[in-house]
Amino acid sequence: MARAGLTTERLVKAGAEMADEIGFEQTTPSELARRFGVRTASLYSHVRNAHDLKTRIALLALEELADLVSAAVAGRAGKDALTAFANAYRDYAHKHPGRFAATRFPLSPEAAASSAGVRHARMSRAILRGYHLAEPHQTHAVRLLGSVFSGFVGLEGAGAFSHSSPDPRESWTEILDALDTLLRTWPTTS
Amino acid sequence: MARAGLTTERLVKAGAEMADEIGFEQTTPSELARRFGVRTASLYSHVRNAHDLKTRIALLALEELADLVSAAVAGRAGKDALTAFANAYRDYAHKHPGRFAATRFPLSPEAAASSAGVRHARMSRAILRGYHLAEPHQTHAVRLLGSVFSGFVGLEGAGAFSHSSPDPRESWTEILDALDTLLRTWPTTS
DNA sequence: GTAATTGCCTAAACAGATTAGGAAAGCGCA
DNA sequence: TGCGCTTTCCTAATCTGTTTAGGCAATTAC
Which CATH architecture has domain B8-184? Predict the structure, then answer.
């Protein structure tokens, strides 16, 4: 019988594509096996279990996202960098909804430590370099940016903006304007 | 054999408590049946299926949250109302993590229409009344507030702030200050 | 007290996750 | 080329969760 050529990497890659097609929740070992034309049990030599598969997809997505954001931000500063970061993030979520959902999969401390989360944190701080915020204000601002991006894209994906006008893209643009203004005049009165 | 006294309402209520204890994902018909000391199949006279159970828990949580936020905001205006809204929201997520997760369960259009989502939207707009923003800026600001609250609490719950100082509460306070400033000086230059 | 109703049961089918052990494909090496 | 070793995928089996169909017993209504 011809072999299917399973490897951990191919499974995770295919799992990520599957997530974009049918949703991260529905990305299960059995469905993945179906796509490779093998029995479910055959995956277990390459992936520890269902949770491990999802973790690996999450790590892949975090790396991809970090690569894209990093490329988008390179050579930019100030508001230019802010919008490049934000748009790269949002574009990724739109093009790869399943992978984006995967980036929200709760990681174990060990998995989180080996993830691209560190790169994400560093990039957020890099954005703020042009705004000259001292600690602890910089950390607060990093957290605000993360909250806005994560929250907006999450709500948009959940359809929270679907039943009201105007188009979310207009809100996105105006919100980025507002954030830029806010960062330039951050109230450091604590 | 003595009856367990199952009703849809009791099941949903218990399901919500279960979600807070073991997580919304783990809130399944079989586990719920276990807690009531009945067979899983017995639930199916009161709840259509697993998805229906989760939807009902989500609707319950949305109502509860709307009640709490509404009570917190009553009689307040401006920054006072803003922080009351925000804190009620965040407190609920802390006290009821499972229910809060349930509020993010994707609802069908019909379920969403019959949900407390409308109340949430109305309350967000009420908050902004004190800031005198004209449309479409008010809508953009509503979406920003929703994004920040949802994003911050989501990230906090996922442990995204656990491995860096300072305490998220400090960020929360400073972010609310910043939002207040931002809303009072919203850049209407579109 | 009996009839109708309702509530929870048993039984069964089915799908997904996971483990153990087997057979055969492909590789390294004489 | 052919031998054995390793790896890959398989079968078989178990367990858990979801869901439907049909039955008996507890409650309610008269």
Answer: Orthogonal Bundle (1.10)
